[in-house]
Amino acid sequence: MTxxxxxxxxxxxxxxxxxxxxQWTALGLAEAGFRVIAVGRDEAxxxxxxxxxxxxxxxxxIETTLADLSLMAExxxxxxxxxxxxxxxxxxxxxxxxxxxxxxxxxxxxxxxLAVNHLAPFLLTRELLPLLASAARIVNVGSSSSDKxxxxxxxxxxxxxxxxxxxAYGQSKLAxxxxxxxxxxxxxxxxxxxxxxxxxxxxxxxxxxxxxxVAWALIKPVLLxxxxxxxxxxxxxxxxxxxxxxxxxxKKSAPAEPNPLGIDQGLAGTVWARTEALLGLSEx
Length: 284
Prior knowledge:
globular, alpha/beta, 8 helices, single chain, Rossmann fold
């Protein structure tokens, strides 16, 4: 008697997976039947994530890998690790992000906020494109801070201006949006590429210390929970009705109007080229 062939689960790669929105996104993807490769920075928290997800969904297929996404060498190493683990990716969720009170440069010389929020997802996506199936989806977690942000393509790393945490964060998320939409145009219908705003969520991103940290702690109880914050990401990642929707911005699981700068194709091309230059990549 011939046994029925059990189809292999779809594989999803999720960055920023070990806390907050990422934690609940990992659970939701596992519940949707994905094999989840979850990326974190801390081994102990990665182990806790696996235990937590399996405790809530016993059939979860979840594994972890570690990478510091502020370092582009680590992003490249992560991509090589994923290629060794999975011959094909069906979903890439670039969820990792941060905000800092002061301008900080990584040991590679990149401004930290831009490195994590924009350079890392740009490079990781580029490195993994050969693995992404024709029906795959790329979901980039942006922010409503991009909605009114301005961007200087010649100063993406905020070297020529007095530092502003909120403006730098907004610019990094607007850069992510611009290059996401540019990638969608370059790829056509597949894989799809969309940007989501999860809402204002009470996560660790606001644990900035000092007065800002105190203010965040005070308002955190009235913000969205991380579980609620994961819903838009999961909707765009898994809803069958969105299988061919690309180059869009979503809030509250519905299409939203982006910053007009975010759909400026000329600006997108300039930011794309500048991003490649910062990463030492050849023009594509």
